[in-house]
Amino acid sequence: MHSKMKKVAVLAATVTLVLGVAGVAHAVVEQKADVRVSLTGDITPSALPRDEEKPVTVTIDSHISHLGEAEPPELLRISLAINRNGHIDYKGLPKCRYKRIQPSNNEEALEACGDSQVGTGYFSANVLLPEQSPFPSKGKILAFNGEVLGHPVIFAHIYGTEPIPTSFVLPFVVRHSNGRYATTLVAYLPKVKANWGFITGVRLTLNRIYRYRGRQKTYLSAACGAPKGVNRVAFPFARAEYVFAGGTTLTPTLTRSCRVK
């Protein structure tokens, strides 16, 4: 087992928020002990109004590599914090309920909650015991707007047929706060036994334009927070956090730039 797991490249269970990605961004790499995280991301268009939010593409993509001989530590929690100049708007968007999509395949999930869909994506894992693992080795993600105990969430419905048909739902809680990062998505990974397998990738693409009370709204929007007199500015675009069993925590931060339109 150790030989299979050595230097496993893990496209970690973090979030890729994509409305329409253009180009490949440079990565930020952070490493502690035998765990290494490579984080990339971008925002498009990069030219935005100074004081008015417009629809944007926000891309976050990360890879985790385990460099040691032992099995990779279990990933317990992931979060993604987005700069305060961008935010998620779900007011008036229909809500999906967890029980309507778990368990279900892709077609059943869309039939149950298609009106609340906010994106798609891809999932992968290293499954060691197919009959016992709670997740498939790979599969499609359908993302739905939802609510849990009064808190807004993104339900990442994951379904795959290899090695056997399996589905599960990973809720990302949407949290709002003041400060540099105003919106944070947080997910707690399912507890698994070490010999079941390891999550190796989550890519989530968010894209939804909808109407509410006669007005067109967009799920993701942003402005360029450059000071007056400055037409281009660099800013802390996003911060990810990966919490592993054993106490290892990695928090890479991406810096990007925008231009005042």
Structure at a glance:
The protein is mainly beta. The protein has helices at residues 2-5, 98-101, 106-113; strands at 9-10, 28-32, 35-44, 47-48, 54-55, 57-66, 75-83, 86-88, 117-127, 138-148, 151-162, 166-176, 181-188, 197-206, 209-212, 215-218, 220-222, 232-244, 249-250, 253-260.
Question: How would you describe this protein?
Answer:
This protein has one domain (2-260). The protein has three helices and 20 strands. It has helices at residues 2-5, 98-101, 106-113; strands spanning 9-10, 28-32, 35-44, 47-48, 54-55, 57-66, 75-83, 86-88, 117-127, 138-148, 151-162, 166-176, 181-188, 197-206, 209-212, 215-218, 220-222, 232-244, 249-250, 253-260. A hairpin with a 2-residue loop joins β10 and β11 (151-162).
